[in-house]
Write a structure and sequence with these properties.
single chain, 17 helices, Alpha-D-Glucose-1,6-Bisphosphate, Chain A, domain 3, phosphoprotein, isomerase, 4 domains, binds zinc ion, A-D-PHexomutase_a/b/a-I/II/III, Phosphoacetylglucosamine mutase, 19 strands, alpha/beta, phosphoacetylglucosamine mutase activity, binds 2-acetamido-2-deoxy-6-O-phosphono-alpha-D-glucopyranose
């Protein structure tokens, strides 16, 4: 694989998923190398370690991708997304590096540190050499964690910047922090039963095996799709959420809790069998479960301000459920960085995308208030969630813990509300940039007149809701629709798709 870019190569853009594309068309080598340069320059600029993860998450095994992490584990800041794009597309790389060094006032004597991680894709190992080459070229060192989940990379990047010495940085730190928090919360419980985890044939199997072993006295974690099949193929959180069906290899039984993670283990969905039928508990449900718990425990008198951040994809029934409980909700644009940012406005911000990506953020004021009000149980929960980024395994333990704390079965959880029938479609048009949206992607402002026509269609069905937006990761426009019945929902989504087409 070449790590050099041929002049005139098609331009790429750093988007919500970083850079992503086929791993076999000769482009990913230079893209990852230059992302190594970006991560190193960002580290030099801040005087702190940054992270670099090589993964294409839930995408097929032939794809790959790369993403840069800020020192505390957040997504790269917007102006550096622009610099990453410029560095990656430059014909004259050295000139572009010099330009960034000048414009960002990076000291010429500074040295950066980049924490590097990769998923299990066959192309990922070679790409981590590409990243290292870039990091060295940008006058920095790399610390290669090898095969890790995306949230492990974020967490360890956070830890090193919070003072963990380099020589103490290892995965045991990650596993002990989260298992200890879980054991603390469940110290008075017996065995909590069985959870079967679909690992998507990805890196989740490594994390899953560790948690299964470390928590065997409390919960029976059984792993499926644990490396015997193709990555993300007919399995994983995206497959289960999109198809609303069980992954391959899962012979579902009543009374067992099931969940699926995606290829880099930052997304989680639960499901179970109810009267012989598959029932999905997605990111909206996870958010509602945690929010319900917080509201019950905090009670009316607490000074802790908490709320839930969703996107337009959140099922309307979940938003109504939260509003009926008097829990604040906020809607943001799609993409974790937007949700994460909005969640920071609360003392405790619960954020989840319907697709299962999310976490709970506790700010310093929340911790101080919880301590003052004596909420030790919630303080323990704050340690169980990976606050740097959505983490399928930490979220799974949080779900298990909250079900236990509420004394709820998965049936009780499912009974919170009934989803409105919904449908998500992809429409391919000549130029998806023609579709422009505002109001957290719920209102279309271009092409002119489209939103009015969409409103008229929505008005024809009961409980109708629909929006269109250009995908940030694929060359398509997404059409989402919801209505009171599956039939009306299909009718509405097809009519809206025809408007866009
Ligand atoms: C990216 C986002 C994910 C979002 C998805 C939407 C992050 C880490 N990932 O995968 O949150 O749901 O894009 O994709 O922000 P779309 O723009 O193609 O619909
Ligand atoms: Zn993922």
């Amino acid at each position: 694989m070449s790590f050099e870019r041929a002049p005139g190569t098609k331009q790429v853009k750093y988007g919500t998923a970083g850079f992503r594309g086929p791993a076999d068309d000769g482009q990913m080598g230079f893209i990852v190398k230059r992302s190594g340069i970006t991560a190193a320059l960002r580290s030099r600029k801040l005087g702190k370690a940054t992270g670099l993860m090589i993964t294409a998450s839930h995408n097929p095994v032939r794809d790959n991708g790369v993403k840069v992490t800020e020192p505390l584990g957040e997504m790269l800041v917007p102006n550096w997304e622009g610099l990453a794009t410029d560095l990656t597309n430059a014909d004259d790389l050295n000139a572009e590096i010099a330009k960034v060094i000048k414009s960002e006032e990076i000291s010429s004597s500074s040295e950066g540190l980049v924490i590097l991680g990769r998923d299990t894709r066959p192309s990922s190992a070679e790409l981590s050499f590409a990243a290292t080459e870039g990091i060295i070229q940008a006058q920095s060192r790399s610390l290669n964690l090898g095969v890790v989940t995306t949230p492990q990379l974020h967490y360890l990047t956070y830890k090193i910047n919070k003072g963990t010495p380099v020589f103490n940085l290892n995965l045991d730190l990650y596993y002990s922090d989260f298992t200890n928090a879980f054991l603390e919360i469940t110290k008075n419980s017996g065995n909590l039963g069985s959870v079967e985890v679909d690992c998507a044939n990805g890196v989740g199997l490594l994390a899953g095996a560790q948690f299964a072993k470390r928590l065997e006295s409390k919960v029976n974690i059984k792993l499926t799709n644990a490396g015997d099949g193709l990555l993300n193929h007919d399995c994983g959180a995206d497959f289960v959420k999109t198809g609303q069906r069980a992954p391959v290899g899962s012979e579902m039984k009543e009374g067992v809790r099931y969940c699926s993670v995606d290829g880099d283990a930052d997304r989680l969905v639960y499901y179970f069998l109810r009267a012989g039928k598959f029932f999905l508990l997605d990111g909206d449900r996870i958010a509602c479960l945690i929010a319900t718990y917080l509201q019950k425990r905090l009670g009316k008198d607490s000074s802790v301000n908490f709320g839930v951040v969703q996107t337009a994809y959140a099922n309307g029934a979940s938003t109504n459920y939260l509003s009926a409980l008097g829990i604040k909700t906020v809607c943001t644009k799609t993409g974790v960085k937007h949700l994460h940012h909005a969640a920071l406005d609360f003392d405790i911000g619960v954020y989840f995308e319907a697709n299962g990506h999310g976490t709970v953020l506790f700010n310093d004021s929340a911790i101080a208030k919880l301590e003052k009000e004596g909420h030790s149980e919630i303080l323990a929960l704050a340690k169980l969630v990976n606050q740097t980024v959505g983490d399928a395994f930490s979220d799974m333990l949080a779900v298990e813990a909250v079900l236990y704390l509420l004394n709820w079965s998965i049936e009780d959880w499912a009974a919170m509300y009934s989803d409105y029938p919904n449908r998500l479609m992809k429409v391919k048009i000549a130029n998806r940039a023609d579709i422009q949206v505002t109001n957290a992607e719920r209102t279309c402002i271009a092409p002119a007149g489209l939103q009015d026509k969409l409103n008229s269609l929505v008005a024809t069905v009961a409980n109708g809701r629909s929006f269109v937006r250009a995908s940030g990761t694929e060359d398509v426009v997404r059409v989402y629709a919801e209505a009171n019945t599956a039939e009306n929902c299909d009718k509405l989504s097809i009519a809206v798709a025809n408007l866009v087409f």
